[in-house]
Specification:
Radius of gyration: 22 Å
Number of domains: 2
Largest sheet: 7 strands, mixed
Strand order of the largest sheet: 1-9-8-7-4-5-6
Number of helices: 7
CATH superfamily of the largest domain: von Willebrand factor, type A domain
Low-confidence stretches: 1-56
Structural class: alpha/beta
Helix content: 10-25%
Shape: elongated
Order of helices and strands: EEEEHEEHHEHEHEHEEEEEHE
Distance between the termini: 36 Å
CATH architecture of the largest domain: 3-Layer(aba) Sandwich
Length: 362
């Protein structure tokens, strides 16, 4: 069983679109004579020269047909935080609560959180230890755009006490997340972030790791659940993350208060990056020009080298990219393995217009 111990190099992904230029013969943009390989990436022969970000030049291989750029935005992200404030967060002078809240506040109030929306709920509830999911349906801070100081202020008002009714707390978070997805988040990506320092207790019926995993799995296709575990013996939280469709729990060690804070902040930032990295809006082309969906290329530049992801409409094999709707595209989506690769390599994404699309997998 694996988990992520955090010391993350996060991909900072920018994205740019090169405007359509007049049609070129298909041979003019392959300076190296390469076409897309069948694995969904350009491979060695498709390695490109430099590249740039917004309002920059196109990579060398595309200079003859893609010469203008325009910014494209990732879909907005809506994170539903369900935060454990059980008594063990401060028991025996533990720094878990103070460090986790300080890191959360730093993220909620940082300019780096721009483009993210968040809500904040706590468990157990304030009035009593409730086993009723309705007690956790309404957040203390409703969904709001970041940066915002309201979430930090709410964290400051909490006094950790009580047990860990994780199952009903997650039920409440899911109900609220579904409301968000149906309303303000309908054009974005909605996810749940479960923050806890311990396993579910036995005070509520059905409050077990397996039950929480199954609950997370029941909505994972549309509402992924990320897990941040603050502590040293939380490997079972991995099961909840797997159920929630996010593969690995973020386990934050508690030996060093300063490290708790940094690891926790890294975890939240990684969750933001994971949600943002692979789904991009296609902006309108420059005035007087139209989108030609057969003249679009997706290029990722990292460490001075650039790769062209090939168009893979079925995402067969997991690599490459596709349109959300091939007949009326509005977004570009990376396939699974290409998505995972850009999350782990600092770099920049460009979507280039004007050159015949490189394809590998039909």
């Amino acid at each position: 069983m694996s988990w992520i111990k955090l010391s993350l190099g996060l991909a900072a992904i920018g994205i740019a679109l090169a405007a359509c230029s007049p049609p070129e013969p298909s041979s003019t943009f392959h300076k190296g004579g390469a076409t897309g390989d069948d694995d969904g990436s350009s491979g060695a022969n498709g390695r490109l020269g430099g590249g740039s970000g917004d309002e920059g030049s196109a990579p060398d291989d595309f200079e003859s047909c893609a010469t203008k750029t325009a910014a494209a935005d990732a879909k907005p992200v809506y994170l539903v935080f369900m935060f454990d404030k059980s008594g063990s967060m401060t028991a025996n002078g533990s720094p878990k609560w103070s460090s986790a809240t300080a890191a959360s506040k730093a993220f909620f109030e940082s300019p780096e959180s721009n483009g993210v929306h968040a809500s904040l709920s706590f468990f157990p509830d304030e009035e009593s230890y409730s086993c009723d999911a309705s007690a956790y349906r309404t957040p203390k801070v409703s969904m709001t755009s970041l940066p915002n100081a309201a979430l930090g202020a709410s964290l400051d008002e909490q006094s950790p006490a009580g047990g860990t009714p994780t199952h009903v707390a997650l039920q409440g978070a899911i109900a609220y997340a579904q409301d968000v997805a149906a309303n303000e988040g309908k054009d974005g990506k909605v996810a749940i972030v479960l923050v806890t320092d311990g396993l579910p207790d036995s005070l509520c019926d059905g409050n077990s790791v397996s039950a929480v995993k199954d609950l997370a799995a029941s909505v994972a296709a549309t509402l992924p659940t990320y897990v941040i575990g603050v502590g040293n013996q939380l490997t079972n939280l991995q099961d909840i993350a797997v159920g929630g469709g996010t593969k690995d729990a973020f386990i934050v060690e508690t030996n060093d208060p300063g490290q708790i804070q940094q690891d926790f902040l890294d975890a939240i930032t990684a969750i933001k990056q994971s949600a943002l990295a692979c789904d991009y809006e296609i902006p309108a082309p420059p005035a007087g020009e139209q989108l030609d969906r057969e003249k679009v290329n997706v290029v990722y530049t990292s460490g001075g080298a650039s790769d062209t992801f090939t168009y893979n409409p079925s995402c067969a094999g997991g690599a490459g990219w596709r349109y959300d709707d091939a007949d009326a595209p509005k977004r570009i989506l990376l396939c699974d393995s290409s998505c995972e690769s850009v999350k782990t390599k600092p770099g920049q994404m460009q979507v280039l217009f004007g050159c015949a699309t490189r394809t590998g997998v039909k």
